[in-house]
């Protein structure tokens, strides 16, 4: 295993939709530590390949099974936050003395993410892409600002727990990145000056040499942000290809 971890198999499998979504952070963590992995990305084959295929099989091993999941040898982990924490431990990213602080970061960032999902999928008032700018503006002025303010106050700098990134930082980065891209694409404004520590975290992670291959990979550049079959926002890099992918990603 690359990166100095202690208990990971040579090529674990990360299963998720063919989107950035909740798998962006764990994918980043693999790149950050130079750990090869199998990227199993379900797309327009979801009904057959996942619901009618692999999910019932994996459910026999873990009754909680959902997307994302991580298969690491005999260990099968599901639930997004658990996947982050498992990778943080096995890849040697998370420090024991940061555990409680980092766990709170992950939970708070998930609150932010869940609020964003209410407007990028047609579950609530925003039903169409045409309605998205106004809906996203309301999100930014409301729960978006509330959650970013909490995270800003909780950030020790330059990363959330101090000098080195923990598993939560990768999720914070993804949420910052998605919000900043949406602001630009929808022609809105956002008071980034109110969040200097978060913006510094975003810039520092974007400049991290070990993540250069990730930022140049299709999973960052051209995967849709959200499920391309249903979302009101796919992202500017989405190339229209929503065919499934199974690939071994080497570093």
Primary descriptors:
251 residues; alpha+beta; Glutathione S-transferase Yfyf (Class Pi), Chain A, domain 2; 2 domains; 5-stranded mixed sheet; 9 helices; globular; disordered N terminus
Overview of this structure, please?
Belongs to the GST superfamily. Mu family. This is glutathione transferase. Residues 10-95 form the GST N-terminal domain. One of its GO terms (molecular function) is glutathione transferase activity. Pfam families: GST_C_3 (PF14497), GST_N (PF02798). The chain is of the alpha+beta class and 251 residues long. It has two domains: 15-92 and 236-249, Glutathione S-transferase Yfyf (Class Pi), Chain A, domain 2 (Up-down Bundle); 96-210, Glutathione S-transferase Yfyf (Class Pi), Chain A, domain 2 (Up-down Bundle). Helices cover 47% and strands 10% of the residues. It is built from nine helices and five strands; from the N terminus they run E-H-E-H-E-E-H-H-H-H-H-H-H-E. It has helices at residues 24-33, 46-59, 80-90, 99-120, 132-154, 167-185, 196-206, 212-215, 218-221, and strands at residues 13-17, 37-42, 69-72, 75-78, 245-249. It has a five-stranded mixed β-sheet with strand order 4-3-1-2-5, with helices on both faces. Strand 1 (13-17), helix 1 (24-33) and strand 2 (37-42) form a beta-alpha-beta unit. It is globular. It starts with 12 loop residues before the first strand and ends with a strand. Mean pLDDT is 96; it is low at 1-5.
């Amino acid at each position: 295993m690359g990166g100095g971890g202690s208990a990971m198999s040579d090529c674990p499998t990360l299963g998720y939709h063919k989107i950035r979504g909740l798998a962006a952070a764990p994918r980043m963590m693999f790149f950050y530590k130079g750990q090869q992995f199998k990227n199993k990305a379900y797309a327009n084959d979801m009904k057959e390949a996942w619901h009618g295929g692999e999910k019932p099989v994996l459910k026999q091993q873990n009754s909680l099974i959902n997307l994302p999941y991580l298969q690491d040898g005999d260990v099968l982990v599901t639930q997004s936050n658990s996947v982050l924490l498992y990778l943080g431990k096995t890849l040697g990213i998370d420090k024991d003395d940061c555990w409680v602080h980092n766990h709170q970061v992950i939970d708070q960032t998930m609150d932010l993410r869940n609020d964003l999902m209410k407007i990028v999928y047609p579950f609530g008032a925003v039903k169409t892409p045409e309605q998205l700018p106004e809906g996203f503006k309301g999100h930014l002025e409301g729960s978006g600002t509330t959650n970013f303010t909490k995270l800003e106050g909780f950030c020790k700098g330059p990363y959330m727990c101090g000098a080195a990134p923990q598993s939560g930082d990768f999720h914070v980065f993804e949420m910052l990145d998605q919000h900043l891209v949406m602001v630009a694409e929808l022609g809105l404004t956002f008071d980034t000056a109110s969040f200097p520590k978060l913006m510094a975290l975003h810039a520092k992670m974007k400049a991290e040499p070990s993540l250069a291959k990730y930022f140049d990979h299709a999973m960052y550049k051209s995967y849709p942000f959200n499920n391309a079959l249903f979302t009101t926002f796919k992202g500017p890099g989405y190339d229209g290809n929503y065919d499934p992918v199974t690939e071994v990603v080497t570093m």
